[in-house]
Design brief:
The chain is an alpha/beta fold and 328 residues long. It contains 10 helices and 13 strands.
Length: 328
Amino acid sequence: MKILVYDVAASSGGALTILKNVYEYAKNSEFEWLFVLSVADLRETDNIKVLKFPEVKQSWRNRLNFDKTQALKLIEEYKPDTVLNLQNVALKCSCEQVLYLHQPLPFCKHKFRVWQGGGRYWIYQNVIGRMIKKGLKRADKIIVQSAWMKDAVQRCGVAVDKITVMPPNIILPRDALYTDSGENVFFYPASSTLYKNHEVIVKACEQLNKNGVTDYTVVFTLNGNESKRISKLYGVCKNKNLNINWIGTLDYAEVIGMYEKSVLLFPSYVETFGLPLKEARTVGAPILAADMPFSREILDGYDKVKYFGYKDHKLLSKLMSDCILKRK
């Protein structure tokens, strides 16, 4: 059996992680695999061939043209039995196509506005979102990471038997267990993306300071210079003496180490799955999470979580204060 993995979009973040997971599976498979990529660095093996087209990343026009023309030519040339498409928009191919759908923006309730700094996300939600939804019926099978995404795809008119829920695997680098260190540490492992919503944490910390609560530390996995918006937040933290440490990127083992001694903050309001929620739950850490469908699903039955509206910095401040006072 020959499988063509199509993922010219992946270059970093969650998309690259998904691609690498498929690659690791393919290395131990008896099938023949062909990976069609742009810049991701994967090595060829006895059963894996890698084709790279870096020009795809030069512009959106290149990407769209590649999807519409070159990709179909490659499928015609190599004649795979199945195309495993990892980049959300289904191709117009004649062979079996399995679509891995991991872009939540077209299906989330929050509506981004161009004039509110969300131009890029508005495009994903509306322009690319229409392409994603239109392509769903072209796929023979669709894999999603969560039940809420399955429901969203069904509402687009896709038959339920075509959709498979496959949550990401959690493989901790070692046995890890939360232990109350006695210190009031809150941890938020997240990128600088707009919907990760660092703003609400900063406002909650301002509220804590106004209330005279200063015996705590918040840890961000950012440097403070990732974008103009983040630089502005960084400036607010410094000017107002907020107890927020900007420590930059951590490796996975360090992230797990933080879960073991801190309360996870998770105010993100757009996620397909929300991996830190699952990781922190696995470690047994306390969690303060935005009240969203994905967080309710992942944390269902977990007794160490409190929820807040993703814009409600006052409630988040109160929940953080409760954590601090509980230790005292």
